[in-house]
Amino acid sequence: MIGPEAGSDEEANRERGTDPESAASPLLEVEDLDVHYPITKGLLRREVGRVRAVDGVSFDIERGETFGLVGESGSGKTTAAHSVLGLEEPTGGEVRFDGQSVNELSGAALRAFRRRAQLVVQDPNEAFNPRLTMGEAVAEPLVLHGMEDADRRRAIVEDLLERVGLSAADADRYPHEFSGGEKQRLSIARALVLNPDLIVADEPTSALDGRVQSDVLALLDDVRREFNISILFISHDIDVVRRFCDRVAVMYLGEVVELGPIENVLEFPAHPYTRLLLGSVPSLDPTDQQFERPLTDTVPDPADPPSGCRFHTRCSEIVPPEDVELPWEQWRAVVAFRFTLQAGELPESIAVETADGKLDDATVRDRFDLPATLQDDAVDAGVDQAISAVIAGDLQTARDRLSETVPTVCEQRVPTATEHEAAHSVCCHRYDSTVEAEPRSWER
Ligand SMILES: Nc1ncnc2c1ncn2[C@@H]1O[C@H](COP(=O)(O)OP(=O)(O)OP(=O)(O)O)[C@@H](O)[C@H]1O
Fold it and tell me: Which domain holds residue 369?
């Protein structure tokens, strides 16, 4: 073993989860996790709202598995990761490690957990004290956990440095003498020194260049295999997750919208948000189909998330009301108009022309790809009124008119997780048998 000596075999087995009873359950279980941050106001710090950074998130991680959490910045990945490590107290739900609730751990059990679950952060420059040699830095957790024998610490550190592709002599060098990639290798060595069962890697390669990124990913993969370590891998980059993870959960505004085996989710993405993330990965193949753009680029504020499906304000697959009869392109143009106005993303030219009193119906239609007449009479009338309101500079009336004209189930009901394929679930109304809408086809 790499780290400090364990006690009895039974204890060691229990700690590493290799006794038959604990090995049967996942190493990590995250159940209905909420982390809400209060928004306060005034001297008395009165709570006026909450940032729902993580909202009802559930997933498991098996022993030796690499599980990815992917989503845009602000989707709640880091907050979820910090709760897994017990660094952030959940507002609701539970994190269980080897069957035990992380937030109820204390004394020896808490110390054991701190040993068994380690964090590797994004920026290796922040991870090391410039005044400590790398040997001292990597050995620090051993000291904190009571290993007094300096020769033994040194032997463990030298062995680890070689395992992560550096040399034993590097133990005597200081952080500034290493490149970013080498420092990230050293962070991994430090995470390994206590013989962990779980490594939480928060964007571990996003501060590194392409080639170095691949080397660090390969190293993480090697140590996972060699030591049967589970990895919770956090990234905004779906392509990195594809190369590295066994399963993935896609997060949007604090919620998991799709979860399943990596090849399944990324080859047959069911959720429009997953499709959007995949579409934003540039393809080397020019014959690849271009994906539909989101309705708007504005990511809503997690302190005030949209009702129903949180993605509906950007979703290019948003479900039309049952009584609306429009060709797909017209429906898409109408909802893009609606949610662009709602997000306040009015094109600058329109804002200027409104102020000058020069805006007319044809210009608004042109900017929003709206035809002169829409095929559905009721929608046509509502859009006419909304355009008149935009020309008059009354955006609130325009928004109200459009939300009355094209209400959608996506804003009215919260979608629940539906089984899409084996072990693959998706939260989208298009997969709900009670909603009159089929999933749209996906081709890459
Ligand atoms: N301590 C805090 N107080 C208030 N809001 C917070 C706090 N920490 C995070 N948030 C908010 O919670 C949301 C989720 O943040 P988080 O850092 O978990 O997202 P992320 O997906 O990891 O994004 P990034 O990749 O940018 O770190 C964001 O809107 C963020 O502003």
Answer: 328-407
User: What CATH number is associated with residue 75?
Assistant: 3.40.50.300
Specify the number of domains making up the chain.
2
Question: How many CA within 13 A on the CB side of residue 345?
Answer: 18
- How high is the pLDDT of residue 284? 55
pLDDT in tens, 2-32: 444 434 444 444 454 445 555 678 999 999 9
Q: What angle do CA 57, 60, 62 make, to 5 degrees?
A: 160
CA pair distance 201, 184, nearest whole angstrom: 11
Let me know if residue 420 belongs to a domain.
Answer: no
Residues with CB under 6 A from ligand 1: 37, 51, 53, 71, 73-79, 236, 302
Q: State whether 211 and 95 are in the same domain.
A: yes
Question: How far is Cα 346 from Cα 324, in angstroms, rounded to an integer?
Answer: 25
**Does one domain contain both 239 and 341?**
no
Compute the residue count for the chain.
444
Query: From the alpha carbon of 75, which atom of ligand 1 is closest?
Result: 21
Q: Which atom of ligand 1 is nearest to the CA of 72?
A: 21
The token duo for 285 is 């193949």
**Top mutation candidate among 39, 50, 51 for ligand 1, by most atoms within 8 Å of CB:** 51
Residue carrying structure tokens 């990761």:
81
Over residues 282-292, the mean pLDDT reads 55
Q: Which atom of ligand 1 is nearest to the CA of 234?
A: 22
347 CA → ligand 1 middle, Å: 29
Residues 332 and 236 in one domain: no
Phi and psi of 108, rounded to 5°? -65, -35
Cα separation, 343 vs 69, in Å, equals 27
